[in-house]
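Milestone 3.1: sequence recovery, worked example.
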C-alpha cells in the first residue's frame, strides 16, 4: 500500500500533531495515523479535505505534481 509521505511532510511543516489535523478534517487521530503510514487508503473526501486544509492540490498530495 502507498505511504502518503506528503501529508506527513505538510503536517510537520505546519508544526501540527496528527490529532490537530484529524480534528481539523474530522477524522480520529488513529485513522489519520493509518493514512500517513499507508496502512489505510485515504478516501477521496479526506484527500479533498486535506488539500483544502493545506491549500494544495490533491495531485500534490498524491505526488503527481510538485506545484
Amino acid at each position: 500500500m502507498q505511504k502518503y509521505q506528503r501529508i506527513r511532510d505538510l503536517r510537520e511543516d505546519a508544526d501540527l500533531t496528527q490529532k490537530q489535523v484529524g480534528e481539523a478534517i474530522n477524522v480520529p487521530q488513529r485513522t489519520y495515523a493509518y493514512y500517513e503510514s499507508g496502512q489505510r487508503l485515504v478516501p477521496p473526501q479526506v484527500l479533498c479535505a486535506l488539500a483544502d486544509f493545506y491549500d494544495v492540490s490533491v495531485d500534490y498530495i498524491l505526488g503527481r505534481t510538485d506545484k
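Helices lie at 5-13, 18-25, 29-37, 44-54, 58-61. Residues 9 and 60 are 12 Å apart (CA to CA).
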